[in-house]
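Researcher: Please predict.
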Amino acid sequence: MKETKNMMAALFDMMSKAFSNKENSKVIIAEQLPTSVKNFVMFNFPTQNIASIEMKQDANETVYEICFSEGTEVRIDSNGNWETVDGKLDGVPVSILPESIKSFIKNHLANMRILRIDKTDHGYHTFLSDASMVDFNYNGVAA
C-alpha cells in the first residue's frame, strides 16, 4: 500500500513538471503586439490584413504566430526578429531577406521566389518556387 502511494506521488510529480514546462498559448489582437513586432509587420507586410495572432510563451521566450488573410504566416519573437516566414505561393517579402541571399537569388536563381524561409542554428533554410531547397549560413553563403 505504501509503495502504491509513493508511485502515485512520483507519477503526480512527473505529470506536474511536464505540464509546468508546457508552452502557454493564447489568441491576442494586433493592438497587444509589442511595438517591435508591429513595426516589423507594418514595414514588411503593409498591404496584408492580419487574420489571427497567437502569442506563445514558455519559460525562455515569447513568440507570436501571425496569420494574414492572404495566407502568409510569420513566427516572430518579442524583439521583432522573425524565425519563420511562410509566404505560401506568393513568396516571402524581399525586405526580410539578408542582402547576401537577395544577391544570390538575383545572380543564380533569377526566375525563382523564396516561398518560405526559416532561421536555423546554422543559418537559413529556404524553400523555392520550383520545389527545391537551399540552405545558407549566416553570412549568406549557399551550403
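Model: The radius of gyration is 20 Å.
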